[in-house]
Design brief:
Chain lengths: 258, 388
């Protein structure tokens, strides 16, 4: 189910590929995709799940030219070309939501539906404050807490992590910096490019998300011609960790009606 | 051997360290009293000029958003020194070029200072310390690549004299580079680059620039210099590397008796002990390889951070990061390091830190300059071939 492919002759992509039927491209957030059966099985009941690991989140060499969410978007459009997939359902979380929005702006005609979970990628608030908190002012412990709902028992505990898991954690921090450092967590042009995204769009967040605020999601949704907004009760930012079944349910339901 | 008086221009009048999370980056500047700060700069400038009078060269640097170094614009202080001093070489070490938006501006500033000083500027380039990626908004990834591209562009700006050229690199883009004035020194001022790692030192050696390493002690320095020599030779620059290509920065305090020397040395240790910075600011992702962050989680520690846990003058001397004592003792300590690492031709003296007062600083400079320096110059000429 884990596949590797050299895409557009420039980047080796690792991606999860399971199930059959209509293709759903799912783009992970600030942490590498974890093929949790609670999510994967439910999505596969609807169709084929393709979930790449963003360059930088694994050990594969990052192409020297790649340093932005729209670079990743081009790469994934190339991946789908090379897999022979023309039209698809597109979904993404956090950083992956940003990359998905970039893809939607580039090739709206190829989307059957768009589902964004706690997405970043646009600047919506005033210039005097960051829309998304600065993750690089967080200690590792604070970062893990911020990914989850307040009161969660999730913690950063190196003693409970293998070297491989620790390396994955640090690599994810490096990769987020690569894509999102400046401008912080957004492409200033993107908000002006979403009006052409005519497919049904759904934007969702965890009710207790500490990184993507409710106002941010609502204003983000308003950039699309037609988008609905939803909240997952009790959940924090990292929905794939906190509420994989609910995410799969929201996603497949949205795909089914699209 | 040449010796340089170096001060980080610290602002030490701070609350107890337990009252703040970090001395860098997040410390509110309401704690900085501009009147006290200006008085400090009067004395720092006086101390540089005193060092010049005593026959030493002058070195300065910059840092950002920190009380450990209140010079965030070293080219400005360099300009002042260019006019206040008359003889000393002026080393700026350095320009944090991976954090600079326009290398051409850096080329212009350095050329300007070289003109004002009539050719006395040595130009240092540094990648920038990890803490400062936040204030510079500088991506901690690919900093090395940015630094070297910037250095390439700056050296072209200094050395091409036939009208504008254009530059379209990976990181920097300029349609019209044609700096006025050009540097006084031809073809360009001496270039120094700092590194405390073997990988960095090897690259610097391959380019033939001068290498400066900071507080790396006996074994760390030897590894760094070995890597430099290896890079130099593999690049085909020749078998013999003169010691004047290699610099070492350490804390130095000399007095006519051990008691005064120890008192001064204790105060100099502020430079190491005051550097309270939480790990996430000290080690942003991408600044060091992933594996280094994993190793830190498993208990690995930077030798300097480990030392700062329980600092002492004796330990600092033993590690080769501090040279302190009577002139004979300081001479012996520096000679010991020199012989252990295969020689170095430039000694960068951290001669003032924290609460070391003006009179104490001046005494330390004088005792070194009069009683130690002449011997080092005679015994260790910069033309000596380095290595073993």
């Amino acid at each position: 189910m884990i596949k590797r492919k050299l895409v557009s002759a420039s980047a080796e992509l690792e991606f999860h590929d399971s199930g059959q039927g209509e293709a759903i491209l799912f783009l992970h957030g600030f942490r590498k995709f974890n093929a949790d059966p609670a999510f994967v099985d439910k999505v596969n009941a609807f169709g084929r799940l393709i979930a790449p690991v963003h360059p930088g989140f694994n050990e594969a060499q990052v192409p020297p030219w790649l340093d932005s969410a729209d670079d990743a978007a081009h790469l994934y459009l190339g991946l789908l070309d090379e897999l022979g997939i023309d039209r698809f359902h597109l979904a993404g979380a956090a950083l992956g939501g940003w990359i998905a929005a970039e893809m939607a702006s580039m090739a709206p005609e190829r989307l059957k539906s768009l589902t964004l979970f706690a997405p970043v990628g646009v600047k919506l608030g005033t210039r005097d404050a960051l829309d998304i908190p600065d993750l690089y002012k967080f200690s590792n412990e604070e970062l893990i807490r911020a990914y989850h709902a307040p009161g969660s028992d999730a913690a950063f505990d190196p003693d409970q992590m293998s070297d491989h898991e620790l390396a994955d954690f640090f690599r994810s921090r490096e990769a987020v910096a690569l894509y999102a450092w400046e401008p912080w967590m957004h492409n200033p042009k993107l908000r002006h490019r979403l009006k052409r995204v005519a497919c049904p769009a759904l934007l969702a967040r965890g009710e207790k998300d500490q990184l993507v605020a409710e106002w941010y999601l609502r204003d983000y949704a308003a950039l699309f011609p037609s988008a609905n907004v939803s909240q997952i009760p009790g959940a924090g930012h990292d929905l794939l960790q906190e509420a994989p079944a609910e995410v799969a349910a929201l996603l497949t339901k949205h795909c089914a009606v699209a | 051997m040449r010796a340089w008086h170096f001060s980080e221009n610290a602002y030490p009048y701070l609350p107890d360290a337990s009252d703040y999370e970090s001395i860098r980056i997040t410390l509110p500047n309401r704690l900085y009293d501009p009147v006290k700060g200006a008085a400090l700069f009067d004395r720092f400038l006086d101390e540089w000029l005193l060092a010049e009078d005593e026959g030493l060269e002058i070195m300065l640097n910059e840092h950002h958003q920190t009380a450990t170094c209140t010079d965030p614009a070293a080219p400005m202080v360099l300009s002042a020194l260019a006019r206040l001093s008359t003889r000393a070489r002026l080393l700026i070490l350095g320009n944090p070029v991976a954090n600079r938006r326009s290398p051409v501006r850096v080329a212009e500033e350095m050329a300007m200072a070289d003109i004002l000083s009539k050719g006395r500027v040595d130009v240092g380039f540094v990648r920038g310390v990890p803490y400062e990626v936040l204030p510079a908004n500088s991506n901690p990834l690919r900093m090395n690549e940015r630094m070297w591209e910037a250095v390439d562009l700056i050296t072209r700006a200094w050395t091409e004299h036939d009208g504008p050229f254009s530059f379209e690199g990976r990181f920097f883009h300029h349609r019209n580079v044609n700096i006025w004035p050009r540097p006084w020194q031809q073809p360009m001022p001496p270039i120094w680059v700092s590194s405390t790692s073997t990988g960095g030192a090897r690259q610097i050696g391959a380019k033939g620039h001068k290498l400066a390493t900071f507080l790396t002690g006996f074994d760390g320095t030897r590894k760094v210099y070995d890597a430099y020599r290896d890079g130099w030779r593999k690049a085909g620059l020749g078998d013999d590397i003169p010691t004047e290509r290699l610099a070492y920065a350490g804390l130095v305090y000399t007095a006519d008796n051990e008691e005064d020397a120890r008192r001064g040395a204790e105060k100099l240790l502020w430079y190491v002990t005051a550097n309270k910075v939480p790990r996430h600011l000290a080690s942003p992702p991408g600044y060091v390889p992933t594996i280094a962050n994993v190793q830190m989680m498993r208990g690995a520690e930077h030798p300097l951070s480990a030392f700062a846990q329980s600092p002492s003058v004796d330990m600092a001397i033993e590690k080769g990061i501090l040279f302190a004592g009577t002139p004979d003792q300081v001479h012996a300590q520096i000679s010991r390091l020199y012989n252990h690492v295969g020689g170095f031709g430039e000694l960068l003296i951290m001669g003032q830190a924290g609460f070391l007062e003006h009179d104490e600083t001046a005494d330390g400079i004088r005792w070194f300059a009069r009683e130690v320096y002449p011997r080092l110059r005679e015994e260790f000429p910069g033309t000596t071939v380095s290595g073993f």
